[in-house]
């Protein structure tokens, strides 16, 4: 009877952890322990600060789409493709929700003004403003337009290069492919360096924070502000 009770309790615990995504994050679930999410993304989903991105606080729908794309091969990646492909759909959905509920880290320092290219793009070269989809400070602009602030410089630069060269193509309507096609190597590094310093989460209301956001908005020309923003980009 005692053993039977222990087995039932263990089953209930496993089911509870699986439903929240925590079991997959900490043990790898069906992908195996060697592929546990925390080994690369950290116990708090903050990434490694170098080439592994932060997951904590990102939109659940965005995270799930990336997991589905990894599993299907539409976002090619040697490591993530193997992991996502070994999880079933419910586990991919649960682990995406798990990381979305984690708090994004607080900014370590006062934000640095965004590059003009980020805020306004370059209409002459047909480069769309990043802020149109990802917000003035990179914290996202609604479903499908994910937060990209506070991500490692090397990771952001790598993703922008993948978009530019067509190695990553899982954006609806090719928004990111068009946005990155004419970026130079130097511009990619400038954008990546700034995004690494941009605050990952909205700051508490304050005069300085409000002034920063207002300054970013003011820097955009009227034509850029009034341009129709794509409904979805899924571009982090």
Which short descriptors sum up this protein?
236 residues, mainly alpha, 52% helix, 0% strand, globular, disordered N terminus, disordered C terminus
Folded structure, characterized:
The structure is a single chain. By secondary structure, this protein is mainly alpha-helical. About 50% of the residues lie in helices and about 0% in strands. The chain has 13 helices and no strands. The chain is globular and about 60 Å long.
What is the H/E order? HHHHHHHHHHHHH
Low-confidence regions: 1-10, 206-234
Cα-to-Cα separation, first versus last residue: 52 Å
The class by helix and strand makeup works out as mainly alpha
**What is the average of the pLDDT values?**
82
- Outline type: globular
Secondary structure: number of strands: 0
Approximate strand percentage: under 5%
What level of helicity do the residues show? 40-55%
Counted by DSSP, the helix tally is 13
CA-atom Rg in angstroms: 19 Å
Major sheet details: none
SSE arrangement:
Layout: H1 2-20, H2 22-27, H3 38-41, H4 60-72, H5 78-86, H6 89-100, H7 116-120, H8 131-134, H9 153-165, H10 175-180, H11 185-197, H12 207-219, H13 222-226
Helix pairs in contact: 4-5, 4-6, 9-11
Summarize this, please?
The protein is built from 13 helices and no strands. By secondary structure, the chain is mainly alpha-helical.
């Amino acid at each position: 009877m005692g053993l039977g009770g222990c087995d039932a309790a263990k089953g209930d615990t496993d089911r509870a952890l699986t439903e929240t995504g925590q079991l997959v994050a900490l043990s790898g679930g069906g992908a195996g322990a060697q592929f546990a999410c925390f080994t690369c993304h950290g116990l708090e989903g903050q990434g490694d600060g170098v080439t592994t991105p932060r997951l904590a606080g990102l939109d659940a729908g965005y995270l799930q789409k990336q997991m589905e794309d990894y599993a299907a091969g539409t976002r090619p990646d040697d490591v993530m493709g193997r992991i996502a492909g070994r999880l079933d759909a419910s586990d991919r959905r649960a682990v995406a929700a798990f990381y979305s509920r984690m708090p994004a880290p607080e900014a370590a320092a006062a934000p640095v003004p965004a590059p003009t290219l980020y805020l306004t793009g370059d209409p002459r070269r047909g480069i769309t403003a990043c802020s149109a989809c990802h917000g003035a400070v990179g914290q996202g602009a609604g479903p499908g337009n994910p937060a990209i602030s506070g991500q490692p410089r090397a990771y952001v630069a790598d993703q922008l290069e993948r978009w530019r060269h067509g190695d990553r193509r899982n954006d609806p309507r090719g928004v990111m492919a068009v946005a990155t096609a004419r970026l130079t190597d130097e511009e990619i590094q400038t954008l990546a360096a700034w995004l690494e310093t941009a605050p990952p989460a909205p700051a508490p209301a304050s005069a300085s924070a409000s002034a920063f956001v207002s300054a970013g908005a003011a820097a955009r020309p009227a034509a850029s502000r009034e341009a129709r923003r794509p409904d979805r980009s899924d571009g982090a």
